Structures are given as structure tokens and as C-alpha cells.
Amino acid sequence: LIFTMKMLSESFLKNIKQSLEVSELKAIGPGGGGCINEGDVYASDIGKLFLKRNDKSEAESMFRGELASLEAIRNTGVIRAPKPYTVIVEPQKEKCENSTVVLVMEYLDLKGSKAGAALGAQIADLHLHNQKLLNSPSTSRITTLSNDDPAEESDSRGSSSLIHEKRFGFHVPTSCGYIAQNNSWCDDWPSLITRKLDEQIHKLQSESRPGREALLLWPALQRVIPSLFDDLKEPIIPSLLHGDLWTGNVGSVTEDGVSKPVVFDPACFYGHHEYDLAIAGMFGGFGSAFWSSYFDRIPKQAGWDRRHKLYQLFHYLNHWNHFGSGYASSSLGIMRELTK
């Protein structure tokens, strides 16, 4: 793919420079993009920056969720992720136009990743980080802040990485693609995954035949979901999840002569660690070394296969809502299988 640069207005660039407190911000080349966002590389006083941009109506919420996600991953210290700086919204030129929104982050010279053993081990460590905080005497605070004061919660979570989270969810909405996820806190995991699936089901076009079948299958699947966790011998401890862990969102960077795995484009929340492996197994690219390394640290538990299907269902539904009914067959196949 060849990406061309979209020049940001001088006034917008001035706002970004003021926010970053830099004197230089010079475009030096396109940074690539995907089916949701595009971005460009800029030189600045603080090093090369990647300015990721989008002008959808959902862009500001999407980027603020990504910024919070990158901060959360970086705070664990277990895996490399780009440093996020800020989200800037361009003032509207016309009432009928959406504003361009930019997420400013550290630019990394990413290489392709084989998603091998090092990545598998570090993703497992990411998933175990919250559990280790529970058992660590150095954890300064063990808390779950309420949703009653989101500003206080966001400030508190940004101030320390030593916070053990007891509940499932996240302190801001995050977006898998451009669809925002309701991450309001739940005391148990089955309630949160049921809500996430329910939101995807009810976004489908109910007037279509596949959409109607999904809506008809959903009540039966809802009744099945709690039983999928009956085989677990221990309660689920919330894990910080990447949220969109497919090969397009991983890479590697060489630093100090060492190649390190990198993750980006996260849609974080606290959930069951198995959830992150669902999309990793859907589109290929994660080799046997990744899986072996991961399961060496966090072994499979009884009932894994059916829960894996449930978590893949979320991503098939999400793709159906983003890209159309080409994902309907896979979604409905899982729903029929789990409700047999």
C-alpha cells in the first residue's frame, strides 16, 4: 500500500506545538495507516513523533481510549508500546464537517514481527501483572475506584502503576476499530462479556436474515454463558488486556542492539486473560513459539476451547458491524455451536 500525506493546517499544527511545548514540528513522511486511521511522521524537539489522525465523529473518544490504553500497558513495564503524548481536536471549519482529531505518540521504527516466543512470554506477563500486584508487598494502593467520579478515577490511575484492580472493565471507553466499548465496571467477568456481546448483537442490521437469526439465537446463548466458566478451579482475576491483539497490531523494534516486541493500537480493559487470545487465533500469523511460550506461563484450563469460541464471537460480530455480512457465517456458526 502507498500512503500519501494529508497536510494539517498551520493553525492546527500551531495548537499541537503549543500543547507539546515544542518549537519544531516538521512533516518528514507518511507513517502508513489502515482501514480505520492514517498517520504521518514528524520531526520535533522531543524526537520523531507519529501523528495519527481521523475525522470520524467517534475519533476523539477512540483516541482518548487508545491514549489511556497505551499508558496502562506502559505502566506495567512488561512490554514495549509507543509513548502517547496527547489528543488534539482541530476546531471545526464548517458546522457540517467533522473535526480532524490527532493522537500524538512516539514514533517507532517498527519491523514486522513473527509473533514468536518473546511476544508470547510478554503478553502472558502483561496478563499476570495485575495478579502480581495483588501479591506484592510493594503495591502502594489496592483499590477499585467508582464510576461516580470519572475525572478523579482517571487522574488516580494515571498517577501510579501500582494499583491492583479488583473489577472488570476500564476507566474510559475504548474502541475496537471505531466502535466504542462500554467498559463500565462489573464485579464479575461473565456479566461484562455478556454485555459486550449484547452491544454487538444489537448493532447488527436486524432487518437482514442473518441479523434476525443472531437476535433469535442470542437469548439461548446468554443462558449458556455462565456455564462456560463452571470448569475453572479458581476465580478469574482481572487481567489488563490489549483488547485487539492480532498480527497487524504487533511488531518489533531494535533498541540497544536488541530486537524487542512492540504492541500498539490497543483497546484495553480488565478481563479474562483468555479473551486476548481469541483474535490472535483468528487471522493467523501467531506461530507455535508464541503459543508455547504463552501457555508455559499461563497453562490452558478446562473448558478453554468453548470459551475461546465465545471470545472469538465478539470479534466476528465486531467485524460484521464494521465491514459487513461477510462475517455473518462465522458469527452464526459459533452461536449455533455454543447453544447446541
From TrEMBL:
<keyword id="KW-0547">Nucleotide-binding</keyword>
<dbReference type="InterPro" id="IPR016477">
    <property type="entry name" value="Fructo-/Ketosamine-3-kinase"/>
</dbReference>
<feature type="region of interest" description="Disordered">
    <location>
        <begin position="138"/>
        <end position="160"/>
    </location>
</feature>
<keyword id="KW-0418">Kinase</keyword>
<dbReference type="Pfam" id="PF03881">
    <property type="entry name" value="Fructosamin_kin"/>
</dbReference>
<dbReference type="InterPro" id="IPR011009">
    <property type="entry name" value="Kinase-like_dom_sf"/>
</dbReference>
<comment type="similarity">
    <text>Belongs to the fructosamine kinase family.</text>
</comment>
<keyword id="KW-0808">Transferase</keyword>
<dbReference type="GO" id="GO:0005737">
    <property type="term" value="C:cytoplasm"/>
</dbReference>
<dbReference type="GO" id="GO:0005524">
    <property type="term" value="F:ATP binding"/>
</dbReference>
<keyword id="KW-0067">ATP-binding</keyword>
<protein>
    <recommendedName>
        <fullName>protein-ribulosamine 3-kinase</fullName>
        <ecNumber>2.7.1.172</ecNumber>
    </recommendedName>
</protein>
<dbReference type="GO" id="GO:0016301">
    <property type="term" value="F:kinase activity"/>
</dbReference>
<dbReference type="GO" id="GO:0102193">
    <property type="term" value="F:protein-ribulosamine 3-kinase activity"/>
</dbReference>
<feature type="compositionally biased region" description="Polar residues">
    <location>
        <begin position="138"/>
        <end position="147"/>
    </location>
</feature>
